[in-house]
Design goal:
The chain has 16 helices and six strands. It has 482 residues and is mainly alpha-helical.
């Protein structure tokens, strides 16, 4: 009896253990299940249909959101751009396209597509109108960021679209909807496309509108996928041939959308890697005895490294030694340009001579040199006055766009090579506080556009004590010439 009782107890324990294991597995599945929080199908479809049409309230909210986003891009304010994303109703018809494709609702699909094109047209027209009358035509970083879409933008649109579609079908929307609106970022690229039309910049238009298409396609695909995963019932009953055709069309659109972004993404990765290798090369291999490095430029698109030295002339042998070190940094197909930066590069050879003819010739040469120097001094004075006037104009604009800037000055620096003299534009920026490298790059890009000097090299200094702006503006150019 005892043996049988013990046997029964053992079997009961095994049964309880199996039930606990099963319960644990069910709990894990239940944790990730969407069924528990799923909204009733009728209410989901009602939300989808309400978000599609653009008339009345939705239409005015769209126009105002476009204007807000355009202003944010124009004044380079991320906070304003994010605010526009939060109130944008652009996602409605895109979700509608995806859901209608999933349930084969042709009438809903036609309605969603029509309203989508209406929204795109109104968005482009509104942003075009704003940028056509805006006095600020500079492409700031917020605009430039929307002109080069990559594979990462595809992933953002895909994951953002999935999150938006899941939330749409859920009873617990919470604060996810605003996050989805920010992540999918439909407003900035369409506004940037309007800016490109207003400024007649084809490359900006292609890049920004392509980003908008990426977002549209992958939000649509996400809505389609979520609707099928949650088993939304078909409105019609398509045959296998219709289903297969629909899938092929969706797959073709997705493929055509992804391929360019993969190329752009690969190109960005290659440029980033080249930049890092070039910086390492310059750090460890740019030292030349008797010279010091004045400036360096890395062009990732043309794979060019430019080094400008000050001091004695750099010989061909020294240049070859540096060039031969490029392969060690995986920079085999890189063009290295080495230039001199100061006028004190002439090698002087003095020979003792008591010849009167030679002395007369020297006097003549000195007279010619003196006349040339006087002419150059007059030119320098005119240039200084021009630079000071430009500095005054720029500082007034800079105070509005970049409050961190305390003072601005410009000068021209002459560098001499074997082929002759070359002038380079220099900008000096005095900052009230330290700013990031990306902000410095943004200011430098703005100054290049504002001054019309594409070769402008900008130097930044943080104010450590009270500095007289007038003194800085007058003294910086003179110091540069020295």
């Amino acid at each position: 009896m005892k043996k049988e009782k013990s046997k029964h107890l053992t079997q009961d324990k095994d049964t309880i253990t199996k039930k606990q294991e099963k319960t644990l597995g069910e709990k894990i599945l239940a944790t990730f299940s969407l069924k528990k929080d799923q909204e009733k199908l009728g209410e989901i479809m009602e939300d989808v249909r309400d978000g599609i049409p653009f008339r009345g309230t939705n239409l005015w909210v769209l126009i105002l959101a476009i204007l807000i986003a355009s202003i944010g891009l124009n004044i380079n304010s991320p906070a304003v751009v994010i605010g526009a994303m939060l109130i944008s109703p652009l996602m409605g018809p895109i979700i509608g396209i995806g859901v209608s494709l999933a349930i084969h609702d042709i009438s809903l699909l036609k309605k969603a597509i029509a309203n989508y094109f209406l929204a795109v047209g109104i968005s482009l027209a509104t942003s075009l109108l704003y940028f056509s009358i805006s006095p600020i035509q500079v492409a700031h970083s917020e605009i430039l960021a929307r002109t080069s879409p990559t594979l990462y933008d595809v992933l953002i649109a895909l994951f953002g679209g999935i999150a938006g579609s899941i939330v749409l079908a859920s009873t617990k929307k919470g604060n996810v909807v605003p996050g989805v609106a920010i992540a999918t970022a439909l407003m900035p690229p369409i506004c940037t496309a309007g800016y490109a039309i207003a400024t007649l910049n084809l490359s900006y238009f292609i890049g920004s509108f392509y980003l908008f298409i990426i977002n549209t396609v992958f939000i649509t695909v996400s809505a389609f996928a979520v609707a099928r995963i949650l088993r939304f019932p078909y409105k019609g009953f398509p045959d296998d041939g219709t289903k297969s055709t629909s899938k092929r069309i969706v797959l073709l659109i997705v493929t055509l959308t992804v391929i360019p972004s993969i190329y752009f993404g690969y190109d960005i990765v290659q440029q980033t890697q080249f930049s890092e290798k070039a910086k390492t090369f310059i750090k460890y291999e740019s030292h030349i005895e008797g010279d010091y490095l004045l400036d360096q430029t890395i062009d990732t698109k043309t794979r060019t490294i430019e080094l400008i030295y000050g001091g004695k002339p750099v010989t061909k042998e020294q240049i070859e030694v540096i060039k031969n070190k490029l392969p060690a940094y995986s920079l085999e197909n890189t063009t290295l340009e080495i230039k001199q930066g100061f006028a004190s590069l002439y090698e002087k050879q003095q020979k003792e001579s008591g010849s009167a003819d030679q002395n007369a010739q020297q006097i003549k040469e000195l007279t010619v040199a003196l006349e040339k120097s006087q002419s150059e001094l007059s030119q320098i004075k005119e240039n200084q006055e021009s630079q000071q006037e430009l500095s005054k104009q720029v500082i007034h604009e800079a105070e509005l766009l970049y409050p961190e800037i305390v003072a601005v000055s410009f000068s021209k620096q002459e560098s001499y090579t074997k082929s002759g003299a070359k002038q380079k534009n220099i900008g000096y920026i005095l900052l009230g506080k330290e700013i990031s490298n990306s902000q410095k790059q943004e200011i430098q890009n703005w100054l290049k556009v504002r001054t019309g000097r594409t070769d402008l090299k900008t130097f930044f200094e943080v104010q450590k004590a009270a500095v007289d702006e007038k003194t800085l503006s007058e003294s910086a150019p003179a110091k540069s010439k020295q």
